């Protein structure tokens, strides 16, 4: 039944409802049809309003509970052929001014000591391609010519560092230099682990 027909029966609904006829008249049947149509429409509208309100509540709760993040997340996707794709996020509230850089083989890098001065240097065995930050000659994300890849992640409140007073100046690195050192000198994760193992030293 159309809206105009429903409107036409709106004035006589009470009369039709009080009718004692055993067989519904055509007018009464049309009015009852109008009742059903209106009831179904109202129920559908209520359902949609409830769904919309639930969505608004979820979004509001998510917005209120979410705290500003200064951190990073990395992930590794394994393809059907066994190959892996590495990715990461940058959840900073300020730009890192990253640029695509290439660090060639035999590039000499200087490590930053605990006092901020150059402590020692190394010469890269492998070429590196990646992204730097703040114009520094290091990569915060990169891959070397052997396929070893990695990224520098920021974990405030979770990461810990060596005590500068106890660090060996001949092997100390600033956090932002670690990835460049690893990608420039090693071809696999196993090699990096071996170089970082206790009492293992590699100045490459």
Question: Can you describe this structure?
Answer:
The chain is α+β, with helices and mostly antiparallel strands and 204 residues long. Helices cover 34% and strands 21% of the residues. The protein contains five helices and eight strands, in the order αααββββββββαα. It has helices spanning 3-10, 13-17, 26-65, 178-185, 189-196, and strands at residues 71-78, 84-91, 100-103, 108-112, 118-123, 128-131, 141-144, 149-151. The termini are far apart.
**SSE order in H/E notation?**
HHHEEEEEEEEHH
Count of alpha and pi helical runs:
5
Task: Give me the Rg, rounded.
Answer: 35 Å
Distance between the termini: 85 Å
- On the 0 to 100 scale, the average pLDDT is 74
User: What share of residues are in beta strands?
Assistant: 15-25%
Q: Spans with pLDDT under 50 lasting ≥5 residues?
A: 1-22, 200-204
How is the largest sheet built, in terms of strand order? 3-6-7-8
Largest sheet: 4 strands, antiparallel
Give the helix/strand class: alpha+beta
- Into which percent range does the helicity of residues fall? 25-40%
Number of E-state strands: 8
């Amino acid at each position: 039944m159309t809206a105009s027909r429903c409107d036409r029966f709106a004035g006589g609904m009470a009369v039709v409802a009080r009718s004692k006829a055993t067989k519904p008249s055509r007018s009464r049947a049309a009015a009852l049809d109008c009742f059903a149509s209106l009831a179904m429409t109202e129920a559908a509208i209520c359902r949609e309003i409830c769904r919309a309100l639930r969505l608004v509540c979820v979004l509001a709760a998510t917005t209120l509970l979410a705290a500003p993040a200064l951190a990073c997340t990395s992930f590794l996707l394994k393809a059907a052929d066994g190959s892996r794709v590495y990715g990461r996020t940058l959840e900073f509230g300020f730009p890192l001014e990253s640029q695509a850089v290439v660090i060639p083989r035999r590039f000499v890098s200087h490590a930053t000591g605990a006092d901020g001065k150059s402590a020692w240097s190394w010469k890269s065995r492998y070429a590196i391609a990646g992204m730097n930050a703040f114009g520094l000659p290091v990569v915060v994300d990169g891959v070397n010519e052997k396929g070893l890849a990695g990224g520098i992640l920021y974990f405030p409140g979770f990461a810990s560092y060596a005590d500068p007073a106890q660090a060996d100046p001949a092997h100390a690195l600033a956090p932002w230099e670690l990835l460049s050192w690893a990608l420039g000198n090693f071809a696999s994760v196993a090699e990096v682990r071996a170089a970082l193992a206790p009492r293992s030293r590699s100045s490459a």
